[in-house]
Amino acid sequence: MSNAPALKDWPLWEVFVRSKQGLEHKHCGSLHASDSAHALQMARDVYTRRQEGVSIWVVPSHLIAASDPGEKDQLFEPASDKIYRHPTFYEIPDEVGHM
Amino acid sequence: MYTQSFSVPDDEGKTARPTAASRPASEREAALQAQFDARIDADGRIEPRDWMPEAYRKTLVRQISQHAHSEIVGMLPEGNWISRAPSLKRKAILIAKVQDEGGHGLYLYSAAETLGTSREDMLEALHSGRAKYSSIFNYPALNWADMGVIGWLVDGAAIMNQIPLCRCSYGPYARAMVRVCKEESFHQRQGYEALLVMMKGTQAQRDMVQDAVNRWWWKCLAMFGPPDADSPHSAQGMRWGIKRISNDELRQKFVDATVPQAQVLGVTLPDPDLKWNEARGHYDYGAIDWDEFWQTVNGHGPMNKERLATRVKAHDDGAWVREAALAHADKQQQRARKAA
User: Fold this and answer.
1) CA distance to partner chain A, nearest, from residue B326 (Å)
2) What is residue A27's three-state secondary structure?
3) Per residue in A16-51, pLDDT tens?
4) Which residues neighbour B121 within 8 Å (Cβ) at sequence distance 6 or greater?
5) What is the pLDDT of residues B73-110, one digit of tens each?
6) What is the domain extent for residue A32?
7) CATH number for the domain that contains residue A48
8) Higher pLDDT, B138 or B236
9) Is residue A72 one of the residues assigned to a domain?
10) Contacts across the A-B interface (CB distance below 8 Å)
11) Which among A54, A88, B141, B293 is least surrounded, fewest beta carbons within 10 Å?
12) With contacts defined as CB-CB under 8 Å, which chain B residues touch A50?
């Protein structure tokens, strides 16, 4: 689709912003832009007008692979009966103190 | 910044018909519908790739795109005043505000696109006159006092409408609204402050403020949409967690919040029936002219034609920019491929 001459719309990009040095980039929305440099410029104007970020990532939306919400149970349910993965599963005598 | 708290059908016709829930076609669909209902009942959120009833999707596309169109058309009345702002400070503020409106439109178009509609389709609907936008922009902004009053009252009414939308059941819409609401407070405060400055000026300036308040007050009350009794759409919206607070309730909140602000400013609100009702604990207010409102919604307001024409012209005049950006991106790509 990217080389089709009939492309009238700028392609869609997902925008991720790092709000502060030391924090992760977080998804904040999407926008249309002609290429990655353009997308970065647009993201700056659309999503960081009030110093909301110190760094921006843009990713072509069609390149994101996502899990299927219909398979949510198969994917995530198995974790729910593995409570031994949590520290609170283990009883430790009080006199041990914080562990 | 702006939405009217109801979404009107985009085609002709003034009464919003309640959407009939589509009959589940199969057992599988019935199960999905049950899952969806349960999530809504539990005040959960729906995300783009989740199953949703067609009517829910359609309602959201209509409401979010109308909301986006309102932001975009909302740039026009104020954009007109950028070159005529009374000082460099006011000019910078107004530019920032108009840019915010453009940004709000873009957040919202993106949110609508997650439902499977395209930017192109939405713009086409706006430019052909098929899609609605908030009718408040179909009134003229006559002088500088209007800039203050639009910020104070129009944005004030919009904030009342938009805050509950931050809890909308559709995730991308709710998230866009959180972003929008963070920026709205600036819009209202700059307008109110501009009016405070005028009220400390000459008698002629004070008269301008009062005149602008008189012209905008009733239009702002109408922004909340028809009375609850006449908005059958609302019940469905409430059921789906798209709408959280009824039109009349929001309108009342707006009136109650605005009366003391008007007193501090030193203006009167043009309603002889406006008075505190001890028993209700709210202000009573007079009857809204709904015929005039529907006239404007249906395309016969004083500025409908001019706003749409300006918007279409801006889009057409910008065509070369869109094409040039694509051509540039193409060239860059080819160059990179050659270099590789």
Assistant:
1) 5
2) strand
3) 999 999 999 999 999 999 999 999 999 999 999 999
4) none
5) 999 999 999 999 999 999 999 999 999 999 999 999 99
6) 6-96
7) 3.10.20.520
8) B138
9) yes
10) 53
11) A88
12) 183
